[in-house]
Write a structure and sequence with these properties.
This protein has 14 helices and 14 strands. The protein is an alpha/beta fold. It has 2 domains: 9-194 and 375-396, Glycogen Phosphorylase B (Rossmann fold), CATH 3.40.50.2000; 197-370, Rossmann fold. The strands form 2 sheets. It has an 8-stranded mixed beta sheet, sandwiched between helices. The chain has a 6-stranded parallel beta sheet with strand order 11-10-9-12-13-14, with helices on both faces. Strand 9 (220-224), helix 7 (229-241) and strand 10 form a beta-alpha-beta unit. Helix 1 (22-36) crosses helix 14, helix 2 runs parallel beside helix 3 (106-119) and helix 7 packs across helix 12 (341-352).
């Protein structure tokens, strides 16, 4: 019998405050299944309000370390020198086998780089969004973002990565960009996120609507989370063109976009919800929507909302942009369209009119969430990659 490999000490460092932002949930969703396997997992986040001291506690089986930050609002996302210093000092006092950074802003990459030797860890740099060079920063308004924050974002997006021992990418486009920067493709792991097992459920639309206080006879299209304005405009124009003029759009969470007057009466924005209520609102819908304009930012990311879409067992109508399209195409769990409102509306109408087909797609989506697209399947690949990266670093040193 082969001996069991040793358990690992893993530190995830992210640039978001606790329970907020894509990097936070990326770190948490990778760390939790590792913790379930017995690994010692720590997640370092920014404290939502703290400015002076580190706070440590347990969360979902993971040891949470919340660092202080002197900035506020959007600035509280990995830029503060005080936060960077406190994190670096903390990391240097502890030992890990792996330091896994989610994106590479200064309060993330510098503690990993400076603390790596003291902790004895291998550094794995995760790339989850295409920020510079025509990416996400160009989707944001404001002179300050375009002239100052954008170039700074691009610098920290690119410069630290070649110094890491391993690279994880959330999309194939980012993998190609990493190789173009000189990172060896053999050391790059393509790892889209997996579905959270606690989100997987069997709940009819009628049952979910009763819990949400929605009309049992209504027709609902769902969208989860925030959205770029140009993608929102595509979604609202799609809603306007639906033949099903009685269908309503439920935007679950805080989308952070402007809703045009022409469709405002048909749009419900829930605001931030507890986890179970968020899942109920998605389950109340017959179709879930994923509008993606054909931009560099959308080609370079993996919209994490698809995790919940498949987990609740509903079909998705999505634009054929980026890697998420292959998930729908390979498993027949939704319909793909060009990023054009007329075609988008026609495909949504198609599923609203054929409940049997929509239900069959939803069943297949739930099965994918339980098997090939599960958190545990993703954890298998990540755990194997960690061990290979540790061995390769040991061989070099």
């Amino acid at each position: 019998m082969q001996p069991c490999p040793p358990l690992l000490r893993v530190l995830f460092i992210v640039h978001n405050p606790t329970r907020k932002g894509g990097a936070y949930y990326r770190g948490l969703n990778l760390g939790v299944p590792l913790a379930r396997r017995g690994h010692d997992v720590t997640l370092m986040t920014i404290h939502p309000t703290g400015r002076l001291r580190m706070v440590e506690r347990d969360l979902d089986g993971v040891h949470l370390v919340e660092s202080p930050d002197l900035l506020w609002g959007v600035g509280r996302t990995g830029w503060d020198p005080w936060d960077t210093l406190r994190r670096t000092l903390w990391v240097r006092r502890h030992r890990f086998d792996i330091i896994h950074t989610v994106d590479t802003r200064p309060a993330v990459s510098l503690p990993a780089w400076l603390g790596r030797k003291a902790s004895g860890a291998a550094w794995v740099a995760d790339w989850t969004d295409w920020w510079g060079r025509g990416g996400a920063t160009t989707e944001r308004d404001g002179w300050l973002i375009r002239t100052l924050i954008g170039p700074l974002e691009q610098f920290f997006e690119e410069k630290p990565r070649p110094h890491a021992d391993g690279t994880v990418v959330i999309s194939r486009a980012l993998g190609e960009r990493a190789e173009a920067m000189g990172i060896d493709g053999r050391n790059i792991l393509y790892l889209p996120p997996g579905a959270d097992p606690t989100a997987i459920r069997r709940s009819s639309p009628e049952e979910a609507r009763a819990r949400c206080g929605l009309s049992p006879d209504g027709r609902y299209i769902g969208y989860l989370g925030n959205i770029y304005q140009r993608d929102a405009d595509l979604l609202f124009e799609t809603l306007r063109r639906l033949q099903a003029t009685d269908a309503r759009l439920i935007m679950v969470g805080d989308p952070g976009c402007q809703v045009p007057e022409a469709v405002r009466e048909r749009v419900t924005i829930t605001g931030r919800l507890p986890f179970e209520s968020m899942l109920d609102h998605l389950s109340a819908c017959e179709v879930l929507a994923l509008p993606l304009s054909d931009t560099i930012a959308n080609r370079g990311r993996w919209p994490s909302k698809i995790n919940e879409y498949v987990a609740v067992g509903r079909p998705t109508v999505a634009c054929d942009v980026g890697d998420v399209a292959s998930l729908l195409r390979d498993h027949d769990i939704g319909l793909l369209v060009r990023p054009e409102a007329g075609e988008f509306a026609a495909r949504i109408d198609e599923l609203l009119a054929d409940s049997a087909r929509a239900a069959a797609m939803g069943e297949r989506a739930r099965e994918v969430a339980l098997t090939t697209y599960s958190q545990d399947a993703i954890a298998d690949r990540l755990e194997d990659y960690y061990r290979k990266t540790i061995a390769a670093r040991a061989a070099r040193h």
